[in-house]
Amino acid sequence: MGQPKTIIEKIWENHVVHREAGKPDLLYIDLHLVHEVTSPQAFEGLRMNNRKVRRPDLTFATMDHNVPTVNREIVRDPISKKQMETLKENCEEFGIQLADMFHPDQGIVHVIGPQLGLTQPGKTIVCGDSHTSTHGAFGALAFGIGTSEVEHVLATQTIWQQRPKTMNVHIIGDLGPGVTAKDLILAIIAKFGVSFGQGYVVEYTGEAIRKLSMEDRMTICNMSIEGGARAGLISPDEKTVEFLKGKRYVPKGKPFDEIAENWLSLATDAGAIYDKTLTINAEEIEPQVTWGTNPSMCVPVSGSTPAISEVENKEEVRRALEYMGLVENQPISSINIDHVFIGSCTNSRLSDLRKAAEIVRGRKVHPNIKRAIVVPGSFLVKIEAEKEGLDQIFKEAGFEWRDAGCSMCLGMNEDIVPPGGRCASTSNRNFEGRQGNGARTHLVSPEMAAASAITGHFIDVRKFQEVFQ
Amino acid sequence: MHGHEKIERQSYDLNMLTSIIIFGITSDLFHLFKEVYIMEAMQYHKGLVYPLNRENVDTDQIIPKQFLKAIERTGFGKYLFYNWRYNDDGSPREDFTMNDKKYNGASIILAGKNFGCGSSREHAAWALLDYGFRVVIAPSFADIFYNNALKNGILPIMLEPLIIQDWMEKAERDSFTLAVDLEAQTITDEEQVIKFDIPTYHKEKLVNGWDDIDLTLLLKDKIEAYEQNRQFV
User: Fold this and answer.
1) What pTM did the predictor assign?
2) Is the ipTM of this complex over 0.90?
C-alpha cells in the first residue's frame, strides 16, 4: 500500500501518456462524445490537414442542441438543419457512430452516455460541452473542452492538461424531505460562488452524497462547471455498479464482476489529502430559487432578493435585478412566472420526471402560465416515462410533452422564452438571454418547477402538499 | 474619434483562421517539419483598450446561442456581445460602452474576474478575435475560455484587480493604449511597466504559432505504446 490517493489522482495517473517537466501532461481519452454545435469546425480542421480520427471506436456522436422537440421532421431553421446534416456527413466520412435525431439512442449527450453504459468509472471522458462534468457522477474524470481541443482529441485521442488541484466538497448531514440534489448543488454555488472551483477537480463526499441515487448524483456533478470547476466527481460505490449492470456497453458475466471490482477500487482512499476542502451542512438547506443572472444569485424559497446596500457587488446585483424585472428585498414567493421548463442535462432523467409528475398529478397548470413543457433527456427516457403513464399526468395537467433534446435550456431550437417572459426552469444557467433574448430564468428543482407551475408563483414544495390537500 | 487613428496596431488579417498561413518552423525541436499549418504567431501587440467593467462575463453574453449554428470559424465578430450591443430592432444600445466611438478599433479588452465562464463554446474566442481583440486582461478567467483563447492566438493575461481597476478608469476617461510584449512578459502604459505570468508552454506556442496537433503527433509512438500497454481501468 502506497500513500492514500484521491480518485482524481488515481484516474489521472492511469492516463498519463507523456510527462515532461514544465509542461502539462498528455492524457489519454477513453471516451469522446460529440454533438453538432461544437464539432463542425473540428472535422473541417481534420480535413484541411488530411488527418483521420484516431479512435472512431472511442467516439460517439448525437444531435441534441438544435433538434426540434415537436414535429421533429421539420427543421425550420436552415442553418440548424445544415449543422445537423454536417454532423451526419462528418460521422459517415470519419466512421463515427451517430445517434441522429430519429435514432432510438438519441438524446442529450450527457443523458445517453450513462444510459448506454458508455460512461464508466475510471474513464477519462471529454466532449465539446461544459456540462460533460455530469459523467463524473460515475467516478469518471469528465470535462468540457473547446472545439480546437475536440479536433485535437479526434486526431490524437489525447489532450494536454495541466494537473489540476484537488478539492473535497464535503456535505455534512442529510438533506431534509423535499430538498433535492438540485437544491444541494445550487446551495453549494450560492455559498461558495461561481468560481470557487477554478483550477480544481472537485470530489463531492459525505453521507448525503452516498444516499443520492445515480441520477441525483449526475445533477450534482452536472453543475460543477457553474462553480467554475471543469470536472466534478463522486467515488463509485455499489449504487454505481448496480446502475451500470446490464447496460449495453458494459461487459457482462464474469468480466463484469472483475471490472466492477476495479471500479470500486478507484474510490478515494481513507486518509487521502486534498489541496482544499469546503464543507456545507445539508440540514440547513431549503429548496432553492435563483433570482439573478448567474447561478450563485440564489436564495432559499423562503428568502428574498438581496438588499443592494448589504452586498459587495452592488453594481452587479443592481444590473441583475433590473434585467430580471425584480426589486431588492422582494420575497421569492411573490414572483409570478409565465413559463415552466422541465428538462436539460441537469434534470431530465426518469427520476426527475417521476418526482415532478407526483406534484402535478390530478392538478392543473395555473392559467397565467403561457407555456409549460416537459422535455425528456433522451428517447429512451421518453419511452420509459410513457410506459409509466407520466406523459398522461403531465398532459392532463396542461403541460406539453415533447421529444428529447436540450430544448429550452438554451433555446437553440424553437423552444425559447419570449422577451420579458419569466421561466421556472430545471436547467443549469440563468444567464441573461440564455433561454431567449430578454428572457428571465429562475433555476429550480423539478419538484419546485412542478409546484410553481400549479400555483403560478414560487412556493415551497414542502408546503405545497398541505396547501393543496 | 480621432484618438484611435494615432494608435499603432500590429497589422493582422481578421480572417486569419480561414486563410491559415503556412510558415516554416526552424526550431530545433521541430526540425522534423518543413511546413505546418499554424495560427498567427504573436510576440508584441500595442492597441487601444476597451474597458468592460463587469465581472463573471459569461460566454452566452460574449456570443449568444443563436449564432452558434454556423459551421465556420469566422464571421462571428459582428455578433460579439450582441445582446448588450444591440436593441431588439438592431440599433446600437446607448447603455453599452463598446458602442462609444472612442473605442472603435480597440484590440485589448479589460474585464472583471472570471471572464468567459459558462459554456465551452469556442465561438466566444472566435468572436473576440474576429472583432479585433488580441489581448484580454482580467483578474481571473474560466478554465475552458482560457484554453480556447490561447488556441486562437488571443493572449489572456491575469493581473491584480487594482492594476486593472486603475486602467479601467483611465480607459473610461480617455483614449488609452497598452503595449504587450509577450516575449518579455510585460505590459507598458505611459508610466509603468508591469510584469505578467504565463506558463512557458503556452508562451512558446503563442510566440511561435505552433500547432498543438503537430506537436502531439511527434509523440505518436508513445500514444501507440500507451494503447498497447493499457490496462483498462
Assistant:
1) 0.93
2) yes
